[in-house]
Amino acid sequence: MAKVKTSTLSSDNLTVAGLFGDFRLLIILFVGLRLLLLMIYQPIVVEGVERGMTAGGDFAHYFNLGTLSGHGLLPFRDWWSEFPPVPSFLIVLVFNLIGGQSYPAFASFFGLLMLVADAGILILLRNIGAQLHGANTGMALAWVYAIMAAPLVFIWWNFEPLVTFFLLLGLWWLLKKQDVRSAVAAAVGALVKFTPVLLVGAVWRFRDRSSALRYTLVTLGIFILVYALLFIQNATMTVPSLTAQFGKASYQTVWALIDGNYRTGNFGSAESHLDPAAADILYGNPPVIPGVIRLGVAGLIGLFVFWRTRRFDDKGLVAFVAITLLIFFLQAQGWSPQWLAQIIPLVLLTFPMRSGILICVMLSLVTFAEYPLLFIRTGDTGGIISGALATPFVVLVLARTTILLGLCVALYQRLRQAPIVL
């Protein structure tokens, strides 16, 4: 019987190495999955109830804010916003681009913009991972991020991917010693949400004084210039953008448990944004521990970490940014599930191993078990956790806080290690 000669595989055949080493293919799969989910689970409103990929997120609130611009009203001039300028004007821009009539069109367009930001996060994660740990690890981290559920959800829930993109962009340029570009990225990021400005702390620890001062001046200069223009236009409607988030009652944290606030941290209706006094309404109990004390303690802990840091290589820089972010989140009066979008990439970059992945998975499970799993069952109580839901809510808040504290300890230990010189 004649033997059949087996032909050799062509270079076009898929192999494990070829699959996981092809970043273009990863991008195609990454974007394709999210687009297909949007097509299958389109954002719609049925009898006043939101359905589809955006259900449970903030896009409906964004759309309602956008309707104010349909009457010729603009943020920071005619109505106050709890967000910094970039998302506030982005909401208005998207609303008017789609004609201001269709929520599905608005939500889809806004989500696609966040998808672009998330693809940027994937690219930056691969690049930073390769810079810190080598090309193979950088690709592996990109694959891990691509198949995680939390980042996928957030592009259809809020603008957090945009925050994370500028945070990582600023970090990437810091690692490449392009400090001015990094400072601009941090400033733009701070105009999306304030956390990217925390990069300034890392610069003061890992750069000389003159470089740190220049970085600070560029970052704060851009930030102050933008807000100065808004203050000139209408100071009354601009102030809440800086204060509203910090003036809210506590929610979903140990501080909220102490205060007896078993609810989320939402603001009022879109119409309430026409009255600047509405930004000061406290939805919940006042704090038992004043915010200035929490912030002061967090500042002291941050200074302790600042002075005790021994690792001054690139890995130390990323770890310092990560612990700074976590300390800020832990002192905050509230917790938002979307903060995972910033935490997950930094955890993967700092702990590029099985334990780092498991931490991200556990933190995601605890976070989504709290919201939306528990809070979706509070319709009869106006969004307030009560009755049989109280105990699991407390357990989940404590579990999440414990994980974040454990991460801080692990990051501090990393910062106390002297870098290995090869």
Summarize the structure.
With 422 residues, the protein is mainly α. It has 17 helices and 2 strands. The chain folds into 2 domains: 207 residues, no CATH class; 165 residues, no CATH class.
Structural class: mainly alpha
Beta-strand percent range: under 5%
What distance lies between the first and last C-alpha atoms, to the nearest angstrom? 59 Å
How is the largest sheet built, in terms of strand order?
Answer: 1-2
Number of helices: 17
Count the domains.
Answer: 2
Largest sheet: 2 strands, antiparallel
Q: Sketch the topology as an H/E string, one letter per element.
A: HHEEHHHHHHHHHHHHHHH
Instruction: Give the fraction of residues assigned to helices.
Output: 55-70%
Low-confidence stretches: 1-10
Radius of gyration: 23 Å
Broad shape: globular
State mean pLDDT (0 to 100 scale): 93
Number of extended strands? 2
Describe the structure in your own words.
- The chain folds into two domains: 22-43 and 50-234, no CATH class; 248-267 and 278-422, no CATH class.
- Strand 1 (44-46) and strand 2 (49-51) form a beta hairpin.
- With 422 residues, it is mainly alpha-helical.
- It has a two-stranded antiparallel ribbon.
- The chain is 64% helix and 1% strand.
Task: List strands and helices in order, with pairings.
Elements: H1 16-20, H2 23-40, E1 44-46, E2 49-51, H3 59-69, H4 85-97, H5 103-133, H6 135-146, H7 149-154, H8 160-175, H9 179-190, H10 199-206, H11 209-247, H12 254-259, H13 291-308, H14 314-331, H15 340-350, H16 354-374, H17 390-416
Antiparallel strand pairs: 1-2
Helix pairs in contact: 2-5, 3-4, 5-6, 5-8, 8-9, 9-11, 10-11, 10-14, 13-14, 14-15, 14-17, 15-16, 16-17
